[in-house]
Amino acid sequence: MVDLKVKLGQVELKNPVMTASGTFGYGTEYQDFIDLSRIGGIVVKGTTLRSRQGNAYPRMAETPLGMLNAVGLQNKGVDYFVNNIYPTIKDFETAIFVNVSGSTIDDYIITAEMLNDLDRIPGIELNISCPNVKEGGMAFGTSCLSASQVVREVRKVYKKEIMVKLSPNVTDIAEIALAVEAEGADSISLINTILGMAINAEKRIPVLSTITGGLSGPAVKPVALRMVWQVANAVKVPVIGMGGIMNATDAIEFLLAGASAIQIGTANFIDPTVSIKVLEGIEDYLKRHNFSSVNDIIGALEV
Amino acid sequence: MLDLIVKENKQLNNQYFLLILGSPDELPEMYPGQFVEVRVDNSPETFLRRPISINFVDYKRNELWLLIQIIGEGTRKLSTCKQGDLLNLLLPLGNSYTIPTNEDSKLLLVGGGVGIAPLLYLGSKLKEKGIICDFLLGGRSKYNLLQLEEFSNFGNVFTTTEDGTYGEKGFVTNHSILTNKKYDLIYSCGPTPMMKAVAAYAKSKNTECEVSLENTMACGFGACLCCVTDSVDGHVCVCTEGPVFNTSKLKW
Question: Which chain A residue has its CA at the smallest distance from B219's CA?
């Protein structure tokens, strides 16, 4: 029997397989496909203070080994989440994190405060990296100053786990990671999507209504791995790795690079059962290599 | 999620093909208007699944029919499927067309191009209910009118072609049947300009109208929020709130 438990700051997960925000709805969308209690954690859809309609259609472009999205944080707001969604998901036997985003620091503070009292939510993922909103989002995550400021203010009001989700659209990601760690982040997740663009040559128009969007899928995996490795080497808090994970081997690569847990994103769209396959694959790998705990391979890259 | 076996791949002409998929297990119940998400392969260009509407389900033979037009790389690859190949599908997805309870309902089903696909299954389900509908099918040319024989098994078939090579010349909305008959409900599937014209006709006659949208989507089951359409309730997912919408709900 291999031990799959991992510790993320204040929270223990039954295994390192999580699902990424914006790709897994509220978990309910996947209930017909998998037993949610088997996965380590779910990060639910990006939640903002007020309801957001998101960006205009078209919001998605398929690209080689990936996709661009420009959803723009469509959600019904934190009130709706607390009153209408939380009651329907609180009994899922997995760690549920709420991804929190905002246009202003006050938005982040009020939203986090409202989530503080939800017993079955052990933490929030502070999204300072959404590339698809006009105000806030990624703007907070691309400078040490603003990233520090958001984390510092939210830390004052939110008592449980704060996982900070970083943007890859920066010159030095380790620098941002260190800055948010210094302000009290319990863990750091990365990468959010990479800013990209698609063009319809025949019509001479952009594919997305927003012109640019966020790239995800296997196309971004090498960049994500590199950044996870850099951040894991720089900080002491646990790192949650994501970016193009399609199978167990991909996930193991992130663990070896230093991630204590991983999130599966785009792959959920193609195979809604992929998280279970990744979990089983990690277990097989550990047995095959005679490791008794998944912790034995975290950061075990030999360089 | 199901693996289905390609029983037959009928090339209808160089633009359209019909995949007949079978399963050793009993197929789940599917409703007209619903769709499937087909995994094409693992190549870089066809990374996401392809949403395809359900053309027909033959429960006796445990067959699912998919009528597909070759548009891009995904549909081109699907067109090369051979008998015995396995295809992985998510199904059934989305909502469905409303089946009236009144057997005397006068129903018109208007399809254009490959958009006729879900109307065949809808027509068959209506016939099961004892309703014989009118089909009004349009295409650019004779070449774009498909499955006419199959349609005639379930209702009265009227056709238009833009070049006049078959049926009445013009668009579906020019067909004489629209001036001669009054319907209780009109269903439509096809290119958006055609559906908008059908919706405008229905509105002018004070007739309810249901259309099927085909926005690009990543997941097909409400997780990615990519396929939204603007409705009276704001942005809603075509994959879960649709693909069938009463046009009164759309901002058309």
Answer: A269
Cβ-Cβ contacts under 8 Å for B13 (sequence gap 6 or more):
B143
**A130 in catalytic set:** yes
A277: exposed, middle or buried (C-beta count within 10 Å: 0-12, 13-18, 19+)?
A: middle
Instruction: Kindly determine whether residue A67 and residue B47, on different chains, have CB atoms separated by under 8 Å.
Output: yes
Domains in chain B: ranges and CATH: 2-93 (2.40.30.10), 107-212 (3.40.50.80), 214-252 (2.10.240.10)
Interface test with chain A among B73, B77, B225, B238, by most A beta carbons within 10 Å: B225
Please state which architecture CATH assigns to domain A6-53+72-194+216-297.
Alpha-Beta Barrel (3.20)
ipTM: 0.94
DSSP codes, B39-55? ---SSGGG-S-EEEE--
Mutate to test the interface with A, among B45, B230, B235, B236 (most CBs of A within 10 A): B235
Contact (CB<8Å) B224/A56: no
Partners of residue B45 in chain A, C-beta under 8 Å: 64
The strand pairing partners of B136, in sequence order, are B110, B158
Neighbours of A303 (CB within 10 A): 4
Closest CA to A238 of A3, A5, A9, A6: A9
Helices A221-234, A248-256: axis angle to 10 degrees equals 30
Q: Which of A29, A61, A65 sits opposite B223 (nearest CB)?
A: A29
Q: What is the pLDDT along chain A (303 residues), one digit of tens a residue?
A: 899 999 998 899 999 999 999 999 999 999 999 999 999 999 999 999 999 999 999 999 999 999 999 999 999 999 999 999 999 999 999 999 999 999 999 999 999 999 999 999 999 999 998 887 777 778 899 999 999 999 999 999 999 999 999 999 999 999 999 999 999 999 999 999 999 999 999 999 999 999 999 999 999 999 999 999 999 999 999 999 999 999 999 999 999 999 999 999 999 999 999 999 999 999 999 999 999 999 999 999 999
> Do B48 and A69 lie within an 8 Å CB cutoff?
no
End-to-end CA distance of chain A: 29
- Please identify which of the residues A36, A44, A70, A130 carries the catalytic annotation: A130
Q: Domain coordinates of chain A in residue numbers?
A: 6-53+72-194+216-297
